[in-house]
Amino acid sequence: MNQQTKQILKDVFTSPLARKVYTFSLGVVLGLIIRGNPEKIKFEEHEDNALMKFHVEYLDPATNQRVTAENFNTATFNREYFDPTTFPTINWTNHSNQKVGELFGEMIAKEMACGIDSINYHLTTPGKKYGLDYNYCNKSATTAIVDAAQRAGLKKKGGIEVFAVKQGKHDALYNGDKLVEYFSKQYGDVPGIIIENPSIEDFDNIKTGAIVRFPNHTKVYMGRGFVDQSGRVFIPDHRGNHVIASGYNDSFAYFNGGQCTVIDMANLVATKLQQKGRHTR
């Protein structure tokens, strides 16, 4: 490069216009750094709005009193999902097998949430709720399944039982590895029921109420939503992230991946109803 060319380049890069470009570019970069990831910020805004949108009327299970806007305790955040009077209802006349399964899964999630909530607010104890005082992660999940099955009327109205096979049933209720083994033996060849090591994206197709078995730990998939920093409050919302609930520490958390096996209970029940020969009009 000759001297003349060097001088031309120097003049270009040191010109007032070039300095303005440098300043503008630096401002853009700093702005992006300060602002952060736009998607993350949008999620956090939705999260704040969801958690701080108070439900102004519900029945407090502890006192059996109606809570209104006047006496609402703002420290408890949004309590709507934990209202025990708002479970979904199955229309056994018209709902398809798949719809029944999906609603059953939603019942499992809500039973799990209400159980966690009752323990956190000292309305019950693990001993009373699950018959165990420690290491009750799997029993809390299977209790939610059993309670949801009773609430849905699966046996009475659908003619099926979730834990129909007696062999291995007791171990499955208390041991997560045995639970996976129990259903894998029955439905391991049925697509969409037993899912090994799903990615976060795979959960877009996994139904609410699915059992998520990690090594030595069982959790319940709650669907999409938001979780507060204490881990005690879960708000369903399609704009949120995938959420799982743990009976071991009575909390909710975002699913961030990891080695696990999923039992999609909604698809399992839909398959059972189909095998039973149930049809809707």
What can you see in these coordinates?
The protein is 44% helix and 14% strand. With 281 residues, the chain is an alpha+beta fold. α4 (97-120) packs across α6 and α4 (97-120) packs across α10 (265-276). It is globular.
Strand and helix layout:
Blueprint: H1 3-13, H2 16-35, H3 38-52, E1 58-59, E2 66-67, H4 97-120, H5 126-130, H6 137-152, H7 154-157, H8 169-174, H9 176-187, E3 194-196, E4 211-214, E5 217-227, E6 234-236, E7 241-246, E8 251-254, E9 261-263, H10 265-276
Antiparallel strand pairs: 1-2, 3-9, 4-5, 4-9, 5-6, 5-7, 7-8
Helix pairs in contact: 4-6, 4-10
Total DSSP E strands: 9
Shape: globular
What is the mean predicted local confidence, pLDDT?
85
| Number of continuous helical runs | 10
Strand content: 5-15%
Order of helices and strands: HHHEEHHHHHHEEEEEEEH
Query: What's the helical proportion of residues?
Result: 40-55%
Q: What value does the Rg take, in angstroms?
A: 26 Å
Key words describing this protein structure:
10 helices; 281 residues; two-stranded antiparallel ribbon; 14% strand; seven-stranded antiparallel beta sheet; alpha+beta; 9 strands; single chain
Précis, in short:
This protein is of the alpha+beta class and 281 residues long. The protein has helices spanning 3-13, 16-35, 38-52, 97-120, 126-130, 137-152, 154-157, 169-174, 176-187, 265-276, and strands at 58-59, 66-67, 194-196, 211-214, 217-227, 234-236, 241-246, 251-254, 261-263.
